[in-house]
Amino acid sequence: MKEKLQLDQEKIVRGRKAAGRIAADMDAFIAKRTTVAVERTVLRLMGIDGVDAEFVPLPNVVVDHLLEKGQLSIGAAAGVINAGLHYGLTPQQVAEQVATGSLDLTAIPWSGWDSIRREGKRLADAGLDRIVANRRNREDLIRQLGEGKKPYLYVIVATGDIYEDVIQGKSAARQGADIVAVIRSTGQSLIDYVPYGATREGFGGTYATQENFRLMRKGLDEVGEEVGRYIRLCNYCSGLCMPEIAAMGALERLDVMLNDALYGILFRDINMQRTLIDQAFSRMINGFAGIMINTGEDNYLTTADAVESAHTVLASQFINEQFARLAGLPPEQMGLGHAFEMNPDLEDGFLLELAQAQMARQIFPDAPLKYMPPTKHMTGNIFKGHIQDAMFNMVSILTGQGVQLLGMMTEAMHTPHIHDRQLAIENAQYIFNNARHLGEEILFQPGGRMEQRAQSVLDQAVAMLEEVEKIGLFAALERGMLADVKRSRTGGKGLSGVLEKGEGYYNPFETELRRRLHLGEREEETAHERGLETN
After folding, report:
1. Where would I find the D-Lysine 5,6-aminomutase alpha subunit domain in this sequence (predicted)?
2. What CATH number did the domain enclosing 71 receive?
3. Mapping DSSP to helix (H, G, I), strand (E, B) and coil, where does residue 500 land?
4. Among residues 170, 370, 493, 501, which one is catalytic?
5. In the predicted structure, residue 526 carries a pLDDT above the cut 90
6. Domain span at residue 109?
7. Does the pTM exceed 0.90?
């Protein structure tokens, strides 16, 4: 499989090195900054949950309190831990008192960094140990029940009502789905808080809340026992609350998260600085939790032509890979995205799609690539659409993709019904079973059309990456080099939530995650010292 296309290995190395330097440059920028979402995530991992009398989430209440007092730049953890030590309170109790106005976190005698770091480590260990227990539980269930063969069959539920989603998710598992993704309610990525509790009124999808995660996880565990295989749960770790949702998913044992470094910038107009800082912490959490991330390169081809802009998909895959590596996320958890989105009326379109998929498989051999179905060129002709989906499935099994988001033949007409999903699953199962090992028997013509196409895409991607390396990722996004979408460095949503770290900045969870993920920091180095160094 690795040598089917004779690609220029030197070009692959150049592309990876350029992407690595792009990511490293951004990482230096990220290291000096935090966001309100990162600080809320720290509080959630410390055990703070619930809402105040006005239904504002308590993590938001505490972070807004510290921001208003001008004390958030040293991290939300320090103030909460200091109050807990002084009054003998848990983080939850501290947050509740802040919410009632009975406690000002900036008016409490300072306990000293040594005491705060010691208590911070204890809280971080407790929060991360809970995530470790979830990861082990997942591994135990997979050993007991088994799982579906790759490519995993990935389907969507999107009713807006979590209780109906659970019913549909169970139905999908019985039909043969391996991954059930709960589509998030329209616009949730643009709100700077996480809704609370079970929700029943989402539009175009269901709100991502911790209780909704718990309910769906419980339902899929039940049906997993029934059908005799582990069913993975997927949600959307993106938008203005990206790291918070990563934490919630880790605490409720989600298995897959949509988590792209650039998607929110390009397709939701979220400020690029905010997104890139948030994605770094969210990926550390996902990596530690054993959650497979799915990146969103497939979306580039909804705004740009799939033939002309194929290299932008590969360039973004390289960049996403390097950001993931910096966060300690191993290749087997990198569901790098791409899509079967060429115009079906194009001559040799199948050949070009096969070349693109095979190229991605060879360049990222250990990643469980996420392959997206045809959507842009689907029509009301359901018979043609079903054939397009079948050809998409054939490319996937021939090239060893990892996650197959199934296409629905009625997709261009309406939200697909349950029986449409059944037909999509049967289509994929038929092709995957009948062509399971066909790819092992096929060789591609050396120097032929497929090899020439793949090498051309690689050449363009490397040239693009080296240009981005010269001008910087921010400038590349401003120029619209990805997905033909231009964004401003200081525009978009959420920039006001970005802060430069102050002297002594402290995030106990980042400190402990870096240690446990072996990300290169000395174990004895204190967070206080790191804060001084970065300033």
Report:
1. 5-510
2. 1.10.8.1000
3. strand
4. 370
5. no
6. 33-124+501-534
7. yes
